[in-house]
């Protein structure tokens, strides 16, 4: 593949071109600097934010919150999904309820958690965990239910104990669905975490974007948004690496 | 022209349309006003102006959008979703203007901070700010007027409380009542019902500090292009606003009743609120203590450098 | 035994087993609801949590009735519904053509893929300030946010679906020298019904969240605004009433989409007849 045909380079080139167009539009006065920040200013703002406004800490806070909420959601979601698989009546009883919860904007409950847990990282963490756990529960159950009978029978014919059956047969077969669930869970957790940070002006990157918007620091606002995209990309890179480790080929 | 029936009909229609033109020209000018914080005594002026017909007298059809305060009100004007933004913190306005926002100050909205008060739970050992050393004291967000006033109050009382951003009035209230912070901020009519019930007590008021009384902390703002192209309309609005403001204080019974209804509060709570808003504090001119505000804006990073005289003249165009 | 009697004899125990499972499911659901309601009420009266945060049903039910009988509710409902549907429509109008493009043109798809994926997982609420700076603070900003949120699930789903369009179908189209527009209409779209609907279902969910969060941040109409208003006035029972309504509507909308998907799915070109 020649350099000219590499998609990554082409993408980067397009990105640079867009930045240059943006720079030109604002400099020439076509677009107001209050709407679009000049990319050069955004870069400067990033440097300033890191130095003066604790952008690194904000990034780490949001990143850590997301990973913690994701991990907790997984720790709750997989066993819960398993229990719903193991006890079929409960699974069938609760499945449509969970699907309904997944479809509803649970983020709207944040004022209530604000009141109970206070204006603190706990509120954000709990909301992220709850919204992240639901798709994990649902997809774990689906994954386990969809394990082909023949596979289960192989385990049984080898006289596997319950734990062996779970770890050697069921879980590996359900991994693709479980990871789909974890990916969805992480997306929802991230959306809720940053959304709440943005709304209540507290926490990591969501708060930074909200504050910059408040102070009309438009380059700073765009800088915050760039970092949010980075957080999101990092979280999913971590997930992809984990998936490659665990997922049987 | 031969007077056929069709011709007569056409002429009649044309005549009627021609007759309507002057009426069309007299139709009300439509303007949109963004106001921060719904339902406070001082944010209701425009509402009264609409209800009592003062704006209609000036030929204006006014639509009100309430925002949650802060810079959201200014955003409305900057994006031309609204022509006027009322009740804006002066520091925020200075910062936005310096960054190129097309806004002009047309009047003062609140001078001094008589409306702000801080409270604690009724059983708290804190009786006044002198007992507040090291205690947690809430304000809305960094750089806001609640922040500045709490600093002034603490300095005046000679104490160093632990100042903490607690967000809006509702958030603050729950943090106080659940014991997460010691002193919370509020403005009337909020929380006055709890004061009446004896669940909380007021320990400090913005009006306690004399130095604050000489500083305009909130202003009313108009979109700069709109002002340049429609100066007369802006003047009409400000005249209507001034009349509504007069009415509020001269027809006290009616305005208090409207205030109570609008906010769904008891008439007693409404009456308790009015003393927090002395008429002088709502004077539309001048912009008092501007240099102090500019210094504070620099301190809180809203401004990088003081405004020049030309900038001040461009920014502040008091009307009517 | 005749064949009919034999099959009936086999079917009967299976049916009985199914009925007993369904009965168990029903019992589980009823007991769970009763337990949850009981815990709620106990918590409400215990005074453990700060008073008012978990109000008793005695307060919530009248608030709900009050809300449902208030004419102003329907104005807000209309606003939010309009914003969500408009956002979905715009998202679909943009995402389906782009999804087909990214799926059909491999190189282009690979070029944009990292950016689309990065943006897809980014919470769209952070673009609200930019959106408001662009289109103002009115309903347009909420529609734009809804469209932005729904765009990504639909475009990703469509692009993935394009890769599964049968080669046979594609070759038939090409051998008939169909124009691009005809290819899209006759070959691509019929096979894409399911992926698009799947994407739309997810898109509906995130569009609702986007619109509501936008209304909470800055607006003067809509269900999100109403909820925020009640919270600021500390009228918690009414806040719960609005939340209950919002959740019920979101679930109903999702269920409706599910029904539509099933209906259209049985008409897909490769569906079993």
Description of the molecule:
The complex is a heterotrimer of chains A (249), B (320) and C (273). Chain A has one domain (38-246): Orthogonal Bundle (MetI-like fold), CATH 1.10.3720. With 249 residues, chain A is mostly helical. Helix content of chain A is 82%, strand content 0%. The model of chain B is unreliable at 18-26 (pLDDT under 50). Chain B is globular and about 55 Å long. In chain B, helix 2 crosses helix 10, helix 5 packs across helix 13 (290-299) and helix 11 (252-263) crosses helix 12. In chain B, the strands form three sheets. Chain B has a five-stranded mixed beta sheet, with helices on both faces. A three-stranded antiparallel beta sheet of chain B has the order 8-5-9. Chain B has a two-stranded parallel sheet with strand order 6-7. Chain C has two domains: 3-53; 59-265, Orthogonal Bundle (MetI-like fold), CATH 1.10.3720.10. The longest helix of chain C has 44 residues, at 3-46. Chains in contact: A-B, A-C, B-C. At the A-C interface, helix 1, helix 4, helix 5, helix 8 and helix 9 of A face helix 1, helix 4, helix 5, helix 8 and helix 9 of C.
By DSSP (H or I, 4+ residues per run), the number of helices of chain A equals 10
Helix-and-strand structural type of chain A? mainly alpha
Mean pLDDT of chain C: 85
What is the straight-line distance between the termini of chain C?
34 Å
Kindly identify the CATH topology of chain A. Answer: MetI-like fold
Rounded to the nearest angstrom, the radius of gyration of chain A is 22 Å
Summarize the structure.
The complex is a heterotrimer of chains A (249), B (320) and C (273). With 320 residues, chain B is of the alpha/beta class.
């Amino acid at each position: 593949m020649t350099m000219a045909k590499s998609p990554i380079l082409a993408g980067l080139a397009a990105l640079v071109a867009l930045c240059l167009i943006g720079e030109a539009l604002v400099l020439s006065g076509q677009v107001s600097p209050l709407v679009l920040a000049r990319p050069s200013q955004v870069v400067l703002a990033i440097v300033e934010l890191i130095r003066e406004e604790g952008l690194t800490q904000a990034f780490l806070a949001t990143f850590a919150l997301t990973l913690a909420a994701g991990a907790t959601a997984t720790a709750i979601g997989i066993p819960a999904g398993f229990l719903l698989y193991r006890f079929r009546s409960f699974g069938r009883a609760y499945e449509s309820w969970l699907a309904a919860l997944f479809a509803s904007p649970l983020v709207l409950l944040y004022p209530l958690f604000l009141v109970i847990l206070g204006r603190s990282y706990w509120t954000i963490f709990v909301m992220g965990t709850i919204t992240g756990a639901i798709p994990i529960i649902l997809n774990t159950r689906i994954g386990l239910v969809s394990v082909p009978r023949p596979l289960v029978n192989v385990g049984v014919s080898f006289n596997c104990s319950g734990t062996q059956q779970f770890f050697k047969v069921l879980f590996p077969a359900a991994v693709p669905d479980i990871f789909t669930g974890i990916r969805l869970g992480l997306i929802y957790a991230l959306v809720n975490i940053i959304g709440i940070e943005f709304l209540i002006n507290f926490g990591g990157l969501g708060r930074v974007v909200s504050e910059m918007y408040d102070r009309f620091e438009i380059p700073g606002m765009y800088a915050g948004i760039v970092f949010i995209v980075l957080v999101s990309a990092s979280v999913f890179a971590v997930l992809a690496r984990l998936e490659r480790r665990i997922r049987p080929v | 022209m031969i007077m056929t029936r069709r011709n007569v009909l056409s002429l009649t229609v044309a005549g009627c349309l021609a007759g309507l033109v002057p009426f069309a020209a007299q139709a009300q000018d439509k303007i949109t006003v963004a106001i921060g914080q719904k339902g406070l005594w001082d944010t209701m002026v425009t509402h009264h102006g609409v209800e009592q017909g003062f704006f209609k007298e000036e030929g204006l059809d006014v639509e009100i959008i309430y925002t949650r305060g802060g810079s959201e009100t200014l955003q409305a004007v900057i994006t031309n979703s609204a022509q006027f933004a009322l009740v804006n913190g002066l520091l925020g306005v200075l910062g936005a203007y310096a960054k190129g926002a097309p806004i002009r100050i047309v009047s003062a909205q609140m001078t001094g901070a008589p409306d702000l008060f801080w409270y604690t739970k009724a059983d708290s050992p804190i009786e006044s700010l002198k007992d507040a050393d090291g205690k947690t004291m809430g304000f809305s967000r960094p750089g806001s007027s609640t922040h500045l006033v709490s600093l002034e109050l603490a300095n005046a009382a000679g104490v160093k409380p632990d100042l903490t951003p607690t967000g809006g009035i509702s958030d603050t209230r729950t943090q106080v009542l659940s014991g997460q912070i010691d002193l919370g901020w509020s403005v009337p009519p909020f929380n006055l019902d709890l004061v009446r019930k004896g669940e909380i007590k007021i320990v400090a008021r913005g009006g306690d500090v004399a130095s604050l009384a000489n500083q305009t902390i909130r202003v009313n703002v108009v979109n700069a292009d709109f002002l340049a192209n429609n100066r007369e309309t802006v003047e009409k609005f400000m005249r209507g606003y001034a009349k509504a403001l007069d009415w509020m204080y001269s027809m006290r019974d009616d305005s208090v009743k409207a205030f109570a209804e609008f906010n769904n509060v008891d008439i007693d709570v409404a009456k308790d609120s009015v003393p927090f808003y002395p008429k002088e504090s709502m004077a539309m001119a001048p912009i008092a203590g501007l240099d102090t505000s500019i210094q504070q804006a620099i301190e809180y990073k809203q401004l990088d450098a003081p405004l020049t005289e030309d900038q001040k003249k461009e920014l502040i165009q008091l009307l009517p | 035994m005749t064949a009919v009697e034999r099959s009936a004899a086999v079917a009967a125990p299976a049916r009985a087993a199914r009925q007993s499972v369904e009965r168990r499911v029903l019992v589980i659901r009823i007991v769970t609801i009763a337990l949850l309601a009981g815990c709620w009420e106990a918590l409400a009266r215990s005074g453990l949590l700060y008073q008012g945060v978990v109000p008793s049903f005695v307060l919530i039910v009248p608030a709900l009735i009050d809300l449902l009988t208030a004419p102003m509710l329907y104005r807000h409902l209309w606003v939010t519904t309009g914003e969500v549907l408009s956002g979905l429509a715009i998202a679909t109008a943009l995402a389906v053509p782009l999804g087909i493009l990214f799926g059909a043109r491999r190189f282009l798809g690979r070029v944009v893929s990292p950016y689309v994926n990065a943006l897809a997982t980014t919470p769209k609420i952070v673009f609200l300030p930019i959106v408001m700076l662009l289109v103002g603070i009115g309903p347009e900003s909420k529609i734009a946010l809804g469209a932005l949120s729904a765009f990504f699930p639909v475009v990703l789903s469509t692009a993935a679906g394009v890769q599964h369009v049968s080669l046979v179908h594609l070759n038939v189209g090409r051998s008939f020298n169909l124009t691009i527009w005809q290819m899209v209409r006759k070959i691509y779209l019929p096979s894409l019904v399911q992926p698009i609907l799947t994407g739309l279902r997810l898109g509906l969910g995130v569009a609702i969240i986007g619109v509501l969060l936008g209304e909470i941040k800055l607006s003067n109409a809509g269900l999100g605004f109403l909820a925020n208003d009640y919270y600021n006035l500390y009228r918690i029972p009414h806040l719960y009433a609005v939340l209950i309504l919002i959740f019920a509507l979101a679930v109903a909308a999702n269920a409706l989409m599910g029904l539509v998907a099933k209906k259209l799915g049985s008409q897909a070109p490769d569906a079993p007849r």
